[in-house]
Structure formats: C-alpha cells, structure tokens
Specification:
Elements lengths: L2 E11 L2 H9 L11 E7 L2 E7 L7 H8 L4 E8 L15 E5 L2 E8 L20 H16 L7 H16 L5 E5 L4 E4 L5 E6 L4 E3 L6 E3 L9 E6 L10 E2 L5 E5 L2 E2 L6
C-alpha cells in the first residue's frame, strides 16, 4: 500500500515538518520506495513535483524540505507499486482541469475492475488503476455538472456517491482537491489532526525531530494535516472510519449533509 499526506490551512503554510516525516517512509522507515510526488496550490492552479525514485534518495524531496513553499492546500503521496510499472507517469498525485481549476488526486489501495469503466473526457497518461479512477470520477462530475454547482453540498454529496461506488472494487482511500476544498475519503488507514491556538510541540515518529509551533504560528492560524498513518507520537489524531468522507476548507472541517 501507499501513504498519503494532505494539508488544509487558512493561511499559506509550508509542510516541511510533516513532509520530512513522510519522506522517511519512502525507503527508510517504510517500504514505499517506488516514487513520490507532491502538489501545492497557488490560487486555482497547482505546481507539482514528481520523482519515480524513493523519496529518501530524492534530491527533489530534499529541495521541498529545504525550500519552504507555502500553500493553503497540499497533497503528497509515496508509492508502493502494485498496479503499473515504476515510472514518472505512474507517480501520484495526478492532475486534471475542470471548471478552469486544477484538480489534484492521490490514492492508496487497489481497485479490481476499475478499467472496465469507460472514459469520455479524461484519459490516463499512465497505467495505474488510481489514475483511471480519477479520470472516471472527473468524467462523471463533468457530465452531471457542466458548470460548477452553486450549492457546494450538491457537489460534496456527488463526490461521496462516486467514492462509494468505486470503493466497491477494493481499497479506495484518497485525497482530492479542486483548489477550494480538500476532500478525504477513507476505506482504511486515514487520520487527521487540526492544529490551532494554543499551539504546542510535536514530535515526528520517524525521526524524533521536535518542532514548537508556538514559534512558527500566529493565534489566528488553523492547519489540518491528513495522513495514512499518524506522523507524530505526542498528539491526538482523529482516526477515520471505513466509508467516512470529510471535507476541509481553510483548515476547518466542513459540515456535510449526505442525505
């Protein structure tokens, strides 16, 4: 299986601390050594970095850790290949355009039979079941909503419906964003934490590194980190249940009316 890392914040924030922990799992403290990627939003656009090499041996990963690129929404992924060869085109996150926005998607799991689902508007570049699932979901969203719906709850309910359908094919834990919201769906192994005032110290499980967020934040900052497995061992993480769907904006969990 792969591992995911996402961030939603109310002010542009760097993810250096959490990303440093994730990187270790890409070949040092974990077996996810088949490539990695990260996408960071700037407005409706996103900039992405991908490398098919293990994250612990990647000079690009070192750059991300040193160069504190700030964003309000970030999605990252370290890969343990199970479908599709190890190559750049199979490296998450995947990106497509819809409604003049950059959509970003990263997935953990396996989907049996997803490629039977026909595609119209979007086609995979690589050969993973993950990218096919992403293209199919965007196809369905675009067909149902040629323009972005004014009611966000409608869109959220439909994304949840699509996630429920795909999850029947296997493990479908994913992070996705349309530049406005961070969408999180759990089949297994997903958790999140929201950090806000009063901030404290956090210690990475994988390196033992400690950071005091009181020195790096303001009382108004709100930052939510989502990951496959908790990155720190001195904080209380919320562990998601199977089939749980969560939406974040500006670091805050949104209320969803799924019925």
């Amino acid at each position: 299986m792969c591992e995911l890392l996402g961030m939603s914040a109310n002010v542009p924030t760097d993810i250096c601390f959490s990303f440093t922990g994730l990187v270790q799992r890409g070949g040092r403290t974990g077996p996810h050594s088949d490539g990695w990627g990260i996408s960071l939003y700037e407005g409706r656009g996103s900039r992405s970095f991908h490398d098919p090499r293990p994250s612990v041996a990647s000079e690009i990963a070192e750059l991300i850790q040193r160069y504190a690129i700030k964003s309000k929404i970030i999605i990252s992924h370290i890969r343990k290949a199970n479908r599709g060869k190890i190559c750049l085109e199979n490296t998450h996150p995947f990106t497509r355009e819809l409604w003049s926005c950059s959509w970003v998607f990263a997935h953990n799991g396996q989907l049996n039979g997803i490629k039977i689902k026909r595609l119209k508007f979007y086609q995979p570049i690589g050969t993973t079941d993950s990218e096919h699932a992403f293209c199919w979901m965007l196809d369905q969203i675009r067909k149902k909503y040629p323009k972005r719906p004014a009611n966000s709850q409608q869109l959220w309910r439909y994304i949840h419906k699509l996630a429920e359908e795909v999850s029947k094919l296997g493990v479908f834990s994913f992070l996705m964003s349309d530049s406005y919201y961070l969408y999180v769906y759990c089949t297994n192994n997903m958790c999140w934490i929201t950090r806000r005032h009063p901030f404290g110290k956090a210690r990475l499980i994988d390196t033992g590194e400690i950071v005091d967020f009181r020195k790096l934040t303001t009382p108004k900052d709100i930052v939510t980190i989502v990951t496959s497995r908790a990155l720190t061992d001195n904080e209380e993480w919320h562990h998601m249940k199977k089939g749980e769907f969560v939406v974040f904006k500006d670091g805050k969990q949104q209320k969803i009316k799924l019925n």
